[in-house]
Structures are given as structure tokens and as C-alpha cells.
Prior knowledge:
Blueprint: H1 2-8, E1 13-14, H2 18-25, H3 29-41, E2 45-48, E3 51-54, H4 57-65
Amino acid sequence: MAWLLLREARNRAVSCSQGTLAAMLGMRRQTMNRIIKDFERQGLLRVSYCRLELVAVDRLQCRAQDGG
């Protein structure tokens, strides 16, 4: 998930719906929503309508390398 956010980000933001991200990973939107909420609680990103702002890019890169 972290690698997808980093790949899709433009100017530290991903501008697509959670449903679209879920489809890219072959998962349900509800599952994607739980992961995004968890990332938000950890301070990795900020959520707004059809936009995810990457707050801690360095920590997301570590997650991506760890397979997260």
C-alpha cells in the first residue's frame, strides 16, 4: 500500500478515490479505508475528499521497503 501511494503521488499528494486505490491493489474499498485510517492515525498522511496528502514520506518509504 505504501509503495502505491508513493508511486501515485504528485507534489506529496494522491488525488484519486479510495475505491480507485483499492481496485489498483485488488482489494475492497472498506479494507483500503481501514488501512488509510491507520496510516492517518500514525501521522503518515492526511485525508480529504479524493485526496491523500503524504505527510511523512520518509516513513512511507520505509514501509514500502518493508513490504507495507
